[in-house]
Write a structure and sequence with these properties.
Leucine-rich repeat, LRR (right-handed beta-alpha superhelix); repeat; 13-stranded mixed beta sheet; 10-stranded mixed beta sheet; alpha/beta; 3 helices
């Protein structure tokens, strides 16, 4: 072999090394593959997601660690249209995925379960349909999940209540039906649960009283029924109930537009911190309790029920009351 030939081989070798060193890393290739599922790609993504880059860490919506692995993927408010592809499963280091306020459609990709480090998932305000993937129980590091304002249907899977680190679950404004499962008591770290504006039925499981850290519970505008149980009397952190229950720290009680029956528990009248009591459009009966302790009460709406009797004279002591609807 001549010296010239040897030099040419060495030059080719180093050229290959240089080319391989500038090639886009696998996480970047994965992100680019997602574009093929979108019918509208915003100009800012077209201009910054450059295939000739070696790493995707300066791309819009992308945040990496020191090893150039994608940790966070946030495309909120970009007006993206299309489906969210299964290639997401290849982002093994992903911890945060936020796609809120876009036009994604199709089913929620079950391939997300391969992103086992995921802690925050926000797919709110899109056009996702179908059911919540049962396989989500494999996301054992998930702490925050919002699927609100979509078109999800079917029952809330029991697997969702097998993610012990969950602190916030928002399923507001979907087409979910069926009961609230008793296994909800597995969510011992839960701080906020929003089930507002779905088609949930059945009674409230008493096991929800085991979610001791719960601060905010919202489930008005469903088809929940049964009497108003006091199962959450032990939830000392609870500040806002748009579902049921009485608590010494309670500020707002909103049960609007359900099918609750029976009388309003007398404990409501003894909740000193309560400022808003909204029980309209149910099937409640009986008479109103005394409100001698509710000096902070500002708004009370118990209209469109079957409540009888006179308005308690103790309401006159609620000097902060600015709105009272009892018809």
């Amino acid at each position: 072999m001549s010296v010239i030939t040897l030099l040419l081989l060495i030059l080719c070798f180093f050229a290959l090394l240089l080319l391989s060193g500038s090639a886009l890393v696998s996480d970047g290739i994965t992100l680019l593959s997602l574009l093929s599922h979108w019918t509208f790609v915003p100009p800012i993504i077209n201009s910054t997601w450059n295939p000739s880059d070696s790493i995707p860490c300066s791309w819009v919506g992308v945040h990496c660690n020191h090893e150039h692995n994608v940790l966070s993927f946030n495309l909120t408010d970009h007006g993206i249209l299309g489906q969210f592809g299964p290639e997401i499963r290849q982002l093994h280091h992903l911890q945060t995925l936020v796609l809120a306020n876009n036009g994604f459609l199709g089913t929620v990709p079950s391939e997300l379960i391969n992103c086992s480090l995921l802690q925050l998932l926000d797919l709110s305000n899109n056009n996702f349909s179908g059911q919540i993937p049962y396989s989500f129980k494999k996301l054992q590091n998930l702490q925050y999940m919002s699927l609100s304002f979509n078109f999800l249907s079917g029952e809330i899977p029991d697997s969702l209540f097998q993610i012990p680190q969950l602190q916030e679950v928002n399923l507001h404004s979907n087409h979910l039906n069926g009961p609230i499962l008793t296994s909800i008591d597995n969510l011992t770290e839960l701080l906020r649960l929003d089930l507002h504006s779905n088609r949930l039925t059945g009674i409230i499981p008493s096991s929800i009283g085991n979610c001791m850290k719960l601060e905010d519970l919202v489930s008005n505008e469903n088809k929940l029924e049964g009497e108003l149980p006091l199962v959450m009397v032990n939830l000392k952190q609870l500040k806002n109930i748009s579902l049921l229950g009485i608590n010494s720290s309670l500020v707002k009680l909103d049960l609007t537009m359900n099918y609750f029956t029976g009388s309003i528990p007398s404990e409501v009248g003894r909740c000193e911190t309560l400022s808003m009591l909204i029980l309209s459009e149910n099937h409640l009966t009986g008479s109103l309790s005394e409100f001698a302790s509710n000096l902070n009460l500002k708004i009370m709406d118990v209209s469109k029920n079957r409540i009888s009797g006179t308005i308690p004279s103790s309401l006159e002591k609620c000097t902060n009351l600015i709105e009272k609807i009892c018809q």
